[in-house]
Write a structure and sequence with these properties.
Elements (H helix, E strand, L loop, with lengths): L2 H19 L5 H13 L1 H6 L31 H11 L6
Length: 94
C-alpha cells in the first residue's frame, strides 16, 4: 500500500469516528462498525487488528476490509448492507 492510500484511510477512519461520536454517521455504517467489533472480538482484546495491525476501533471505520472479506466485508452502501443482513439473518437495534 502506498502513502496516499494510507493517508486516505487514516483520514477516512478519523472522519467517520468523529461522525459517530457526534451522532452524524449513517445507521448502516454504525451497524457495520458494530458488526466488525463483534466479529473481531479477539482483535479488540489485543487493541489492534490481527490482520493489518491497525489500531482499534479506528480500523473498523475504514471502507476496505484488510482480510479480503474472510472476517468482514468492505463497508457497504445501505442497499447492499440491508441485503447482507437479510442473507445472514441479522438484525440490529442501534
Amino acid at each position: 500500500m502506498n502513502s496516499p492510500n494510507i493517508i486516505f484511510r487514516l483520514t477516512e477512519s478519523k472522519l467517520k469516528t468523529l461522525g459517530d461520536n457526534f451522532d452524524s454517521l449513517s445507521t448502516h455504517y454504525k451497524e457495520q462498525v458494530f458488526y466488525r467489533s463483534i466479529i473481531c472480538e479477539d482483535c479488540f482484546e489485543s487493541g489492534f487488528c490481527r490482520e493489518c495491525h491497525c489500531g482499534l476501533p479506528r480500523k473498523w471505520y475504514t471502507h476496505f476490509s484488510c482480510n479480503n472479506g474472510h472476517r468482514f466485508p468492505d463497508l457497504m452502501d445501505n442497499d447492499n448492507w440491508t441485503e447482507f443482513k437479510k442473507n445472514k439473518g441479522m438484525e440490529f437495534f442501534l
